[in-house]
C-alpha cells in the first residue's frame, strides 16, 4: 500500500496586521517558507512535481497564481509548476490533502503543500468588496436565494448561532480565550515553536499572544453585534503568515535520502449547514476517526482552528475530545489566523508537538466558509 510521508514542515512567525510583517509582499512571504523548506529538507527543488498553495483572498498582490509567483520569487526552478486553491480557511489543509492524494495515487512522488495570507495588504473580504463595487450580485445568486433566503450569511453570525445552540455564555467563551493566550505565551517562552519557525523581517516569534490580558479586560469589550456573546476577544486575530510542507512517496524518500517524520494516516472532508457555517469540524472529525478505525481517546494531540471560541468548545463537547489535548500551545485566538496559511501552520504545529511529546496520532480540523471542514490524521514516525 502506498504511503504519503511528511518530510518537512515550516512556517513564518504569525504577525499582526500592524506588526513587523505588515509591509512584506505576500509572494515574498510564500517564497520565504518555500526556500526554507527546500533548505531544511535538502531536497533537490527540481524534483518537486507541484506546489499547491492555499490563499483565500486571491486579488491584488495575491492574484495571478501566487503559488507560482512565490516559487519563482524564491529563486527556485522554473520547471516546477504551482497552483493556488481556495477552500476558505481550510485552504492550506486542503493543499496537504491534495498533495497527499497525489502521492498516494502513485502519480506524484514529491509535492509541496503551502499557504499564505497577507491580511494587512489584502484585507479579509477584498474579493467580495471588489465585486460589489462593480455591481455584481456576489457571492449569492438566485439559486442560493431560493434555497436559503436573504438571511445574513457570515462567520460572525455563525459563531453567535453556535454559542446560542450549545449554550455558551460570554464568560465561558472568555475563559476559553484566556486559556488560549496563556498556553501560547507559555509555549513561546519555553521555545516550543522555535524549530518550526523561519524568522523573517526580524521577527522570530508569533506577535499575537497577549500574556497580560484578563477576564476583566475581555468583559469590557463590546459584542460584535448588539446583545451578542461574541467579542473580538473570543475571535481569531487578523494576521499575516505563510507555511509549507513537503510530502513524499516511499520511492522519493529512498531516492533523495529524505527522513519521514510522519505519515498521512487519514483524510476526510465534509459539508455542513452553511448558515451555521462553523460546525463542520464535528462531523469531519467523526468521519476521519471512523475511516481510520480509531477512537477519540487514541489521539494524542488535536489542532482545532479557533476561528471563534464556540467552535472548539462545541466540537469537544460533541466528539468527547479532551480540551487538555486540544490546541495545547494555544490557537488562533492568541496566535492569529492568516486565512490561507492557517491549515499549514496548524499541521506544522501538530507535527512538532507530536515530536516534542512523543505522541503517536494527531488530528487537525478546521471550519470553513460555506459550511465545510477538513479533518486530517497524521501518525508520527
TrEMBL record:
Keyword terms: Acyltransferase, Transferase
Gene Ontology MF: a single term: acetyl-CoA C-acetyltransferase activity
PROSITE patterns tied to this protein: THIOLASE_2
Lineage: superkingdom: Bacteria
The Thiolase N-terminal domain, residue ranges: 5-251
Active site: 89 (acyl-thioester intermediate), 337 (proton acceptor), 367 (proton acceptor)
Record-annotated Thiolase C-terminal domain positions: 259-380
A Pfam family the protein falls into: Thiolase_C
Main enzyme class: transferase
Enzyme Commission number: 2.3.1.9
NCBIfam families tied to this protein: AcCoA-C-Actrans, PRK07801.1
Family statement: Belongs to the thiolase-like superfamily. Thiolase family.
Protein name (database record): Acetyl-CoA C-acetyltransferase
Organism in which the protein naturally occurs: Actinomadura spongiicola
Taxonomic lineage from the root: Bacteria, Bacillati, Actinomycetota, Actinomycetes, Streptosporangiales
